[in-house]
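User: Some background: our group keeps a shared notebook of sequences we're curious about, and every so often someone picks one and asks for a predicted structure to add to the entry. Today it's my turn. The entry only has the sequence so far, pasted here. Could you supply the structure so I can complete it?
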Amino acid sequence: MRKTFKFWMAPFLAAAMTTSCLAQGMAVPPPLGVPKPGPVTSRAYAPQPILPGGIVMPLFAPDSPYLNPKRIREAEVYMMDPLVPGRITSIVNIHNPSIEVHLAGANNTGAAIILVPGGGHNTLNVAGGGADLVPYFFTYGVNTIIIRSRLRRDGYEPKTDEVYDLQQAIRLVRANAAAWKIDPRKIGVLGFSAGAELGMASAIAYDDFDVRNSAAGDPLAGVTSRPDFVGLIYPGPSLFTKGGKPAIPKNAPPSFIASAGYGDKVHAVWADEYFAAMLNAGIPNLEMHIYAIGVHGGGLNDRGGTAFGTWQNRFVDWFRDLGFLQKPGVQTLAARDVEAFVKPPAKP
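Assistant: Of course. Here's the predicted structure to add to the notebook entry:
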């Protein structure tokens, strides 16, 4: 009984000791394990993990023509949360784009979500559009990958450079699927705002990228950049905006879309443009939620208990419906529906 009492009282004793230390003028210890950018060296910058245990891999070889050789050695710049020690809110000055992989552990379904943060192409908001979602999806047995893509503010073009980063990330995850126990047919994208803008492009532009990167010298030649699904949360403008009519492949992946309406009209309109184009093309398994109440951004925020604060639950419902939460190696309903849609009708 005495040992049980001591164990139960331990947190209160610790709190009392802290209060006593403060009363005596002793300094409170600083936070531990605060992430820091890597050092500048004579080699390409080595991206550091945002969260403990992250497996970090650059997207391209240091001599890749996709990179700017004049800036590849520059260090990333972290903006830290002033209220939460150790929490990176955003990153800029990204010249050696990378992925950070977090594995799902014993509950692994084989599904992998590449998280694409927003930030208006001016910052990469890796908290609300990246790190915050890792533990959420871990509970569902889903592997998560945070992409650090380049930014317009640093001299890169969203419609090309940033989209290429995401397409290369999909190929890189698929190429390493066996090592990470990821099902290569359950790899997709969940993008936020500007990140969703990249996600919309990845859903239709994969064939061109794959052909462009099919040379024998490319280590990922033959690995497709087609995502198996895309999630688009309060998306930016798509290739369909302003009357754009890009070709939609018949095997385009299913899409989940969510945005506030009245409080975020422009993003709701962009979401609707993409949804309408895909729906008119007959692409299977589309789902969209435009919420009456809400504003732009916020990630997993509760949003005062309004319905928009549960978009992530709707995404998981859709994800489960399409078979992505089944055991690894089991063909998804999404894949079967794509195959059926692509298959030419039987001759009479």
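Suggested note for the entry: The domain at 51-342 is CATH 3.40.50.1820 (Rossmann fold). The first helix runs from residue 2 to 23.
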